[in-house]
Amino acid sequence: MQVITRQLPRHELGAYAGHLLALDADDRRLRFGQAISDGAIRGYVERIDAGRDTIFGVIDADLALVGAAHLARGAQYAELGISVLAGHRRRGVGAALLQRAQLHARNRGIPEFFTHCLRENVPLMRLARRHGMQIIVEGGEADGFIALPPPDASTHAVELLADRVGRFDHLLKSQALALRQVAAAWLG
Ligand SMILES: CC(C)(COP(=O)(O)OP(=O)(O)OC[C@H]1O[C@@H](n2cnc3c(N)ncnc32)[C@H](O)[C@@H]1OP(=O)(O)O)[C@@H](O)C(=O)NCCC(=O)NCCS
Q1: Which of 81, 137, 138, 150 is most enclosed, with most CB atoms within 10 A?
Q2: Does a structural domain hold residue 1?
Q3: What is the pLDDT of residues 53-93, one digit of tens each?
């Protein structure tokens, strides 16, 4: 089944923090390259410049973020940080987020796309390789890199469609959740 991604609006950064806080200690270390406390995660999210960076998410039927990607932008590059909750892995959530972030960066004319991880992070390196990224391992760390081609009409059309599908998915799930809550209250 196709995994639907959605760009998170600025006011949902709190949900992104909640997603990162739900990662266990091992996953936090893989995500950030080092052990990180709850307070440091909150600080990281508070420092995100929502006017420059972009967060993409994948939600479940209860609107919980099961996967999320932070695309941090420089002038000539974009760097991806990605995480998927343990119970939702190996179903293409990571791949969908990576593709979505690459497309977004390409459509903004960013020529270089990176991701950084610990050398032991086999899933991330496998995912990156599968999406055309070159991996350079140095010491205990690894960098994935791909040069993005310039955007064209079709890449803009695909992103427009992905945005609409993401918003529609969120709307449908919101309404279904509201109906389930009303039914649960009604049935006692
Ligand atoms: C890396 C991560 C985002 C991947 O998410 P995911 O939803 O499982 O990704 P996908 O299902 O799209 O694909 C993962 C790939 O890794 C492979 N993989 C997963 N676990 C693996 C393992 N233990 N050993 C080998 N390969 C593994 C999958 O088979 C898949 O490869 P394939 O498509 O060639 O079969 C997820 O594991 C994660 O959140 N890890 C903790 C945080 C982290 O490491 N972030 C990266 C640093 S920024």
Answers
A1: 81
A2: no
A3: 999 999 999 999 999 999 999 989 999 999 999 999 999 99
Asked if 118 and 137 touch (Cβ cutoff 8 Å), the reply is: no
Q: Which CATH number fits the domain that encloses residue 112?
A: 3.40.630.30
Q: Cα(42) to centroid of ligand 1, in Å? A: 24
Query: Which atom of ligand 1 sits closest to the CA of residue 28?
Result: 42
Domain count, the chain: 1
Q: Is residue 161 part of a domain?
A: yes
* 94 Cα–ligand 1 center, Å: 7
The per-residue pLDDT for range 87-105, each reduced to its tens digit, is 999 999 999 999 999 999 9
Does the residue 121 lie in any domain? yes
Domain that holds residue 103: 6-187
Rounded to 5 degrees, what angle do the CA atoms 164, 78, 147 make? 100
Q: Is the pTM of this model over 0.85?
A: yes
User: Residues lining ligand 1, judged by CB closer than 6 Å?
Assistant: 27, 30-31, 81-84, 89-95, 115, 117, 121-124, 126-127, 130
